[in-house]
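#random but structural
TW: two for the price of one
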Amino acid sequence: MAEQEMKFTYQVQDFTVTVSTEEYIRRYSNSECFIKYCKECRNYGKVWVCPPFSHDTMAELRQYANLFLVATKIIPDEKKIPFSEVNRFFRPERLRIEKKLRDMEITYRGKAFAYAGSCLYCPEGTCSRLDNQPCRHPELVRPSLESYGFDLGKTASELFGFPLLWSNDGYLPEYLTLICGLFHNAENICKNKLKI
């Protein structure tokens, strides 16, 4: 008898805020601390969206005046969902927001940043970086803000007004949060047009 796939429902809330690039770098960059965490990760140096990077990341970002940030809060409808099911919530929301960010990147001639975690476009352990080859999907893949050394816990609490929650009992927390953004030089970004 085939195992029945569990279906989970959830609510999504998207929050946005714009901050100057210089202010975001000054207040939320902590590369020394976060690169240490990155080095402990199994993907460090093995996937193109993770450090180490071969360029000056802060110089790259300083080409842009502003950062449009999006915090996606995912609230499961059920309680006591095993943490092993986290990607059933993350994956569809990552795909949704990352596509919008890539579209915005073109519209506003900016640089998009996606969510932390594994790449969605190549099976785990098959990144072309392992063979010193270029990324197979550069039109789709974007680094995370964490990979550039930004503190997303501080970003969530100070800019969005709610903390990141973590699992400590093997079950999903009350809500999950994904934070991404777009560095840009536009005077403003029309949020209504985006329908985030």
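TW: number two ↓
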Amino acid sequence: MSRKPKNDTPQKQKIEIEFNMHSSVPILFNYISTPTGLQSWFADQVSARNQVFHFEWEDGSANSADLVKSVQNKLVRFHWTDSPEDEYFEFHIVQDELTGDVELMIIDFCLDEEQESTAMLWESQVEMLRSVIGA
């Protein structure tokens, strides 16, 4: 009788978090899609070359992400180079047609027990973004 090897790696879950943003869509898109924009709120140093973004933080940590999808004034999707292929993080701009309200939806992946801390981290980051934009 053969047994399949047990995969002990916990599966990460997709989470979606929405934030109301008081910003125009083009300005917000610039802050989520360019190295300069991302460096103002997401990481301490951001550079990009050939669709690969390199992020560095104050604590000395660094990571790279491939830009896998970008739709002007709508969304930007990145894939961390050291994560499974089906995981990504995405910034998606949604504008209500009736009210004109702008929302930033963030899609990310984390373990079940990390959902609260991941949401809190994104809330903190988006507060920084709001401060930079003046929203």
